[in-house]
């Protein structure tokens, strides 16, 4: 009986130490997050062992560079005793004035979640971080997790690149102009557009065999989207408008399935202020229309083949440009919301958004697009 009581006491004492260590670690993480968001470098480093401070300073600089606006930590899998504790840590971060909150999906998007194995020394209720090891599998769009970055900032953009790589400042002027164009069609306007200039090896790892790609948007969550571009190219304002157009029209989603509407809208953001005669993909549209015997359908089924990409992008642009011309900007954005953001068929939303049945919209645009293709 006495031995049994002793075992219960020991278990309770062990559970109490776990609770105390967990509380100390969670307090340290919360204090770090508060220091990070107010720009307090000393406070950020306060719970960090000196040997670990260079790595944590790099993370601090990258998060601050991207305008970190939320830090939501949690600890799991606590083990240890006698002052040394191992904890699996997940920290959801958000950027550019986004106020993400805790909910059922907070720790699901891997891109916005810092996942690390940590070791802490807990003494007198205070926790000191001695080991911080990132989980594997960091995608190209979130190099802030593992590399040192350099930054340049414009009025509407933050441009970053690996330290010693491309110069972010050389992209600011074009990126800011592109951001203003994207803002004109923003359904969910970001605090700032986040752009990453991928060096040669990073770009090759990101796009694989798709050698014709020049940029893409990586949605690390519904709240955050990084525009990644090939830094080997000179700043291309039309490319930036296209990619930032994806951000401004789809932020708050994880993308969509209506490729013709999504790519057509991004092309429209990029080219709507350019005379049709100067649209550099018109020949590709003409070739696709001729090869497929196009009969006026606007929502063309999409082809994933790189060889077909330019033609489909161009035909999608002509469709969106015609809808904007015929029915107006606000009607176009309402239609886009229904089709691209909410996943509805054009025929189901055309009447309430464009004011005409979908068949009428296609009949209106068919001769107009034919004229553009001549």
Task: Please tell me about this protein's structure.
The protein has 374 residues and is of the alpha+beta class. The protein has helices spanning 2-38, 41-45, 53-65, 172-183, 200-207, 237-250, 259-271, 282-292, 306-327, 329-341, 346-353, 358-373, and strands at residues 68-81, 84-95, 113-123, 126-134, 149-153, 157-162, 193-198, 215-219, 225-230. The strands form two sheets. Strands 5-6-7-9-8 form a five-stranded mixed sheet, sandwiched between helices. A four-stranded antiparallel sheet has the order 1-2-3-4. Helix 4 crosses helix 6 (237-250) and helix 8 (282-292) packs across helix 9. The model is unreliable at 8-13 (pLDDT under 50).
Can you count the helices? Answer: 12
SSE ordering: HHHEEEEEEHEHEEHHHHHHH
Classification by helices and strands: alpha+beta
CATH architecture classification name of the largest domain: Roll
Strand arrangement across the biggest beta sheet: 5-6-7-9-8
């Amino acid at each position: 009986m006495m031995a049994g009581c002793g075992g219960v006491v020991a278990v309770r004492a062990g559970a109490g130490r776990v609770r105390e260590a967990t509380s100390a670690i969670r307090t340290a993480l919360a204090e770090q997050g508060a220091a990070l968001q107010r720009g307090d470098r000393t406070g950020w480093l306060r719970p960090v062992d000196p040997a670990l401070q260079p790595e944590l300073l790099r993370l601090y600089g990258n998060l601050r560079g991207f305008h970190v606006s939320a830090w939501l930590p949690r600890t799991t899998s606590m083990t240890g005793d006698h002052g040394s504790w191992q904890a699996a840590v997940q920290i959801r971060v958000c950027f550019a004035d986004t106020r993400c909150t805790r909910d059922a999906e907070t720790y699901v998007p891997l891109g916005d979640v810092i996942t690390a194995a940590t070791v802490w020394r807990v003494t007198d209720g205070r926790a000191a971080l001695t080991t911080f090891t990132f989980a594997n599998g960091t995608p190209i769009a979130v190099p802030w997790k593992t590399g040192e970055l350099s930054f340049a900032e414009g009025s509407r953009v933050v441009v970053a690149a690996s330290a010693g790589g491309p110069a972010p400042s050389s992209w600011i002027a074009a990126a800011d102009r592109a951001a203003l164009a994207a803002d004109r069609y923003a359904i969910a306007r970001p605090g700032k557009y986040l752009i990453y200039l991928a060096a040669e090896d990073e770009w090759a790892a990101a796009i694989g065999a798709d050698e014709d790609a020049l940029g893409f948007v990586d949605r690390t969550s519904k709240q955050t989207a990084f525009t990644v571009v090939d830094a080997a190219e000179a700043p291309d304002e039309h490319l930036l408008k296209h990619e930032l157009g994806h951000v401004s029209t789809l932020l708050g989603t994880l993308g969509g399935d209506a490729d013709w509407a999504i790519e057509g809208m991004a092309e429209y953001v990029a080219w709507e202020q350019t005379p049709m005669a100067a649209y550099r993909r018109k020949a590709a549209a003409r070739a696709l229309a001729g090869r497929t015997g196009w009969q006026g359908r606007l929502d063309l089924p999409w082809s994933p083949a790189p060889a077909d990409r330019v033609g489909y992008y161009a035909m999608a642009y002509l469709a969106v440009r015609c809808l904007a011309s015929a029915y107006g900007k606000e009607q176009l954005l309402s239609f886009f919301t229904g089709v691209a953001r909410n996943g509805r068929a054009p025929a189901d939303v055309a009447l309430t958004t464009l004011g005409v049945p979908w068949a009428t919209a296609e009949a209106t645009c068919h001769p107009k697009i034919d004229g553009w293709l001549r």
